[in-house]
Write a structure and sequence with these properties.
The chain is built from 3 helices and no strands. It is mostly helical and about 110 residues long.
Length: about 110
């Protein structure tokens, strides 16, 4: 009988989550910049550093970064909930005298 620990069975794959967060962030940034940039006037009345296009580009980057962080946060919440459900199920089976199931990789 082989005993496996929780940490060796469960692994959070950071690579795919980071790639997903990056893709979502870049897509949101591009869409936000495209749609909001078209609402800027052709010529700013005041020639200052904070022109409409510069502000839109800055806000689009921030919105894209926030979207990427939200994807990572939701992935962490999902992994935590899944882990909690598995531990609760194992505790229930142990209390009921059942044999805990060992997931097979494949």
């Amino acid at each position: 009988m082989r005993i496996t620990t929780h940490s060796s069975r469960r692994r959070w794959h950071l690579g795919p989550s980071l790639v997903a967060a990056l893709v979502v962030g870049v897509m949101v940034w591009l869409v936000a910049r495209t749609f909001a940039g078209s609402s800027c006037p052709e010529h700013d009345i005041l020639r200052v550093v904070s022109s409409c296009r510069v502000l839109v580009a800055s806000l689009a980057v921030r919105v894209g970064a926030a979207a990427g962080v939200a994807v990572l946060l939701m992935e962490l919440v999902s992994a935590g909930l899944r882990r909690t459900a598995e531990v609760m199920e194992e505790d229930r089976r142990t209390a009921a005298g059942e044999r805990p199931s060992v997931p097979h990789s494949g």
